[in-house]
Design a protein that fits this description.
This protein has a single domain, classed as TIM Barrel (Alpha-Beta Barrel). The chain is 37% helix and 13% strand. Helix 1 links the parallel strand 1 and strand 2. The radius of gyration is 17 Å and the shape is globular. Bound molecules: iron/sulfur cluster.
Length: 174
C-alpha cells in the first residue's frame, strides 16, 4: 500500500494522445504522436495489482481518441471487469473509421469487453473537424448493443447560453 494513496477509488488511462479531431478547445496539444499508445497488457496487469489493495469504484479510458487503438481499450476494460470494478467508462469522439464494417466490429468489441458507460463527444467544436455520419452510425451500433451511451457536449459559457456555437451544438444533438 502507498501511504499517500489511502483513498484511491478511481483509475484513468490516457490511451493515446493521438486524435482524429483537432478541436479548438482541446487541452491535449498538437496530437502529432505518430501512433504511440499505452501498452494494454501492462495496463491490465497494473489494474489487477491495484485492485488487490484498493477498492476501486470506477475506471475510465480516454485520449486523444482511444478507439484508434480498440484492442488496448478493450484489454483494459476486460481487466477492469475481471477485477470487479463496477463502473467502466469510455470517452470517445466516435470517429476512428469511415468503414461501417470496422465501426460495427469495434462496437461489438467494446460491448464484449464490459464497458458499461460510453460518453460520446458531440458538439459544434468537435464537428468542425469530425464528420457526424460515422459518429452517428457508431452511436446506433452501441445503442443497439445495450451499452449505456450518453452524449457529452462541450457548451460555450453554459448550457443555457445563446451563442452560435451552442445553437449548432443543439442542432447536432437533435
Ligand atoms: S476529440 Fe477530444 S482529444 Fe481529440 S482534439 Fe477534440 S477535444 Fe481534443
Amino acid at each position: 500500500m502507498n501511504e499517500y494513496l489511502n483513498n484511491l477509488k478511481r483509475i484513468e488511462f490516457v490511451v493515446t494522445m493521438g486524435c482524429t479531431g483537432r478541436c479548438k478547445h482541446c487541452s491535449e496539444g498538437s496530437h502529432n504522436f505518430g501512433g504511440e499508445h499505452i501498452d494494454g497488457d501492462i495496463a491490465a496487469k497494473a489494474i489487477a495489482e491495484v485492485c488487490m489493495y484498493y477498492d476501486i469504484e470506477s475506471l475510465m479510458t480516454f485520449g486523444g481518441e482511444p478507439l484508434l487503438y480498440p484492442d488496448t481499450v478493450c484489454c483494459i476494460h476486460r481487466a477492469a471487469a475481471l477485477a470487479g470494478i463496477p463502473e467502466r467508462e469510455l470517452i470517445t469522439n466516435g470517429f476512428f473509421s469511415r468503414n461501417s464494417g470496422k465501426i460495427k466490429e469495434v462496437a461489438d468489441m467494446i460491448t464484449e469487453s464490459g464497458v458499461n458507460r460510453l460518453l460520446l463527444s458531440v458538439d459544434a467544436f468537435h464537428q468542425e473537424t469530425i464528420p457526424i455520419e460515422p459518429v452517428e452510425f457508431f452511436a446506433d451500433c452501441i445503442k443497439s448493443s445495450g451499452v449505456h451511451i450518453e452524449l457529452s457536449p462541450a457548451w460555450l459559457v453554459s448550457t443555457e447560453s445563446d451563442n452560435p456555437y451552442n445553437t449548432k451544438t443543439r442542432k447536432l444533438l437533435e
